[in-house]
Amino acid sequence: MHVPKIVQLRAGGTSVVVELAEPVPRVLHWGTDLGELSDDARAALKLTAEPAVLNNSPDVPRHLSIWPTEAEGWSGTPAHEGHLDGTATAPRPCLTDTRHRPLPDGGAELVMTLADDVSDVDIVVGYRLGASGVLAVDAAVTRRTTARSEGRYQLGGVSTLLPLPRRAGEILDFTGKWCRERAPQRRPLAFGGHVREVRRGKPGHDSPYLMVAGVPGFGFRYGEVWGVHVAWSGNQRYLVEQLPEGAGVHAAVLGGGELLKPGEIALGPGETYRTPICHFAWSDAGLDGLADRFHDMLRARPEHPAGPRPLTLNTWEAVYFDHDLDRLTALADRAAEIGVERLVLDDGWFRGRRDDTAGLGDWFVDENVWPQGLTPLVDHVHGLGMQFGLWFEPEMINLESRLAREHPDWILGSSAGLGPSARHQYVLNLANEQAWSYILERVDALVGRYAVDYLKWDHNRDLHEAVFRDATGADRPAVHAQTVALYRLLDALKERHPALEIESCAGGGGRVDLGILARTDRVWASDCNDPVERQTIQRWTGQLLPPELVGAHVGAAEAHTTRRVTTDSFRLITALFGHAGIEADLTRCSPEELERLASWAALYREFRPLLHHGRVVRADTGDDATILHGVVARDRTSALYCWSRLATSPEAQSGRVRLPGLDAAGDYRVRIRTDVGHPSAHQAAPPAWVAQAMDEWTALPGAVLSRTGVPMPTLNPEQAMLIEVRASV
User: Model pTM?
Assistant: First the structure.
């Protein structure tokens, strides 16, 4: 039997099989590893990729290609849309070249070149399957230098799509708002498109974040799932789409890409549009299996933070705009005493910045507040053995600033007049080369002068009416150019200061994506340090990001954002599972509070190697009021779990709860860590194993811990307990 050329990419327990069919290749399989395919298996995949010819439909079988268009009878979202002054709207791409090679990490790459003679563009599609089993897909669309038609090719959109099987019948993605980011939402996969479009100029607090399709009822530890993340920090589009006729022999498609504004990408001869990378991952071990793949991929990057993540104190909730050298040096002294390793000076240090209505853009140290500059504070912090960090919001501008008065043309906005401000600010046009150079010079100068170790890079408003005026006075869309300019700015800073760490903050967690994280070292998950909210925010942020990339801080007893009052043990335990820090005025803490913070800091340093290198696990408790999560060492010889309760439950007992990730054949010792206090409970006495483990190591086999499960104490709401597990010697 003749077997057409079929390429298999294999890595990390995943297979992607592509038939290099004419005129456009198609994906025969994406999912579980099929092993090394024999000729018979390849022929079988080819044979079974042929669907039925339906009534009242095209007279040939419908195939779903890697670049679907109407030319193949596809009635869903096309791979790309565009036109030449209203013409050339029906692309007919054809395969012209392929390259297939192994990757150094053990994965493989397939690059396919398509030619579209209708619109005079060439398309290069890249599939890279890394060792983690995550498939990175991107494309470049280039207008030919020999284009036969005049004018520019107006590219309306490009979507990267992969097929889904019929059993993927349920969708999970995310929404949210300020201080409640990454809230999950689930629904059955129905006919039509489930489409999430982001028009904020950044992913936003309601970011789809990760779109997952899976077998109905999938959970953290079970079920087959397929997911996609769009690694882009501007406008985005995610979709799952199911047509009644299916997608070839598949049922639906999953994908996404950049959401382009009309006229944003107009290709002249020789010009290229490059899509963001869409990261696709499959798992047959539920959402934790999916998270494993993304965490492994991120940790394998050369630029991934390698050293211990410093315990951080950020000054915002300690002093707000009240910058005073004596007060801040006293805060630094107290921070050093309890084990803080990095102090970050937040908003309020630059000219005219006594509140949030003025100063953005004037990135010079305010001489009225800091007559000797920041040097006395920086020297004091470094003298205490701590790193020094500084807050910036370089992409924004207040109208009440010298920069706005001198360069109003640098502000993004309509020629009809600026729209409403947001948080008293507007957006600086980084695509303006003069504005870009000014920001680079100012940040670079301050980082160099003060030996800044860390930047907290904020972004506090959406990009509404993000247009600039061109040389003719016409308004042009700017979100794509703004995003590219931001990336170029961050790259330039990193090139000049290779040791500099940068945090992506956007009013908290409004810009959390793998595009920004290719250039930064952590994200601020949320402006909300209320541990009740944080338990959920961090739980779901971890679906994509490992803990060492997620800022998690302890706030004051009364939360700055919700005014909820919680116990310090609950706040401390919650903040332990991330890149930990403090957001409070330590000079107002009692000796007892400081002692507790010092114990917590020691606990963080003790478990930091495990928390920032192990596997994140989450249990399916069946009760939204309780959360069990933890981190297990890769060799499964140690683990740290958090059992927390957010609210009361109808049930008085937890039942047996499994501790996920352990070796069922192993022998373990368990103890309850009470370094930061004992949780309060709604019970007369705890389960016997908990009572014993409070006082001493308690032997429990892996089969009981991971398969049978153990009863958990009925904690009071807003309480948490730490469970340490070690393999028996």
Answer: 0.97
Mean pLDDT of the region 654-665: 97
* Beta-ladder partners of 502: 455
Give residue 717's Cα distance to chain centre.
29
* Residue 4 pLDDT level (bands cut at 50, 70, 90): low
Write the DSSP assignment of 363-388 as a string of letters.
-SB-TTT-TTTTHHHHHHHHHTT-EE
- Choosing from 292, 527, 530, 568, the catalytic residue is 527
| Antiparallel, parallel or unpaired: β 93-102 and 250-258 | unpaired
How does strand 277-283 pair with strand 225-231? antiparallel
Q: Which amino acid is at 179?
A: C
Whether the Cβ atoms of residue 490 and residue 483 lie closer than 8 Å to each other:
no
Q: What is the dihedral of CA 522, 486, 212, 281, to 10 degrees?
A: -80
Distance CA 553, CA 342 (A): 13
Establish whether 470 is a catalytic residue. Answer: no
Q: What is the pLDDT of residues 310-351, one digit of tens each?
A: 999 999 999 999 999 999 999 999 999 999 999 999 999 999
Question: Is residue 458 flagged as an active site residue?
Answer: yes
Q: Which tokens hold the place of 247? A: 């997608």
Helix (H, G, I), strand (E, B) or coil at 98: strand
Tell me how far apart the alpha carbons of residues 309 and 140 are, in angstroms, rounded to a whole number: 37
- Please tell me the distance from the alpha carbon of residue 620 to that of residue 660, in angstroms, as a whole number: 9
Dihedral of the alpha carbons of 72, 75, 77, 78, in degrees to the nearest 10: 30
State residue 147's pLDDT score. 76
Q: Which residues share a beta bridge with 231?
A: 277
- DSSP helix/strand/coil, 10: strand
Strand partners, 10: 15
| b (16+ CB within 10 A) / e for 294-323 | bbbbbbeeeeeeeeebbbbbbbbbbbeeeb
Q: What is the crossing angle of helices 433-449 and 479-496, to 10°?
A: 30
Q: How far apart are CA 691 and CA 288, in angstroms?
A: 30
Out of 138, 458, 568, 620, which one is annotated catalytic?
Answer: 458
Helix (H, G, I), strand (E, B) or coil at 487: helix
Q: How far is CA 530 from CA 206, 412, 457, 562, 571, in A?
A: 19, 35, 22, 7, 8
CA 156 – CA 611 distance, rounded (Å): 44
Contact 580, 311 (CB under 8 A): yes
Residue 168 confidence (pLDDT): 98
Largest CA distance in the chain: 83
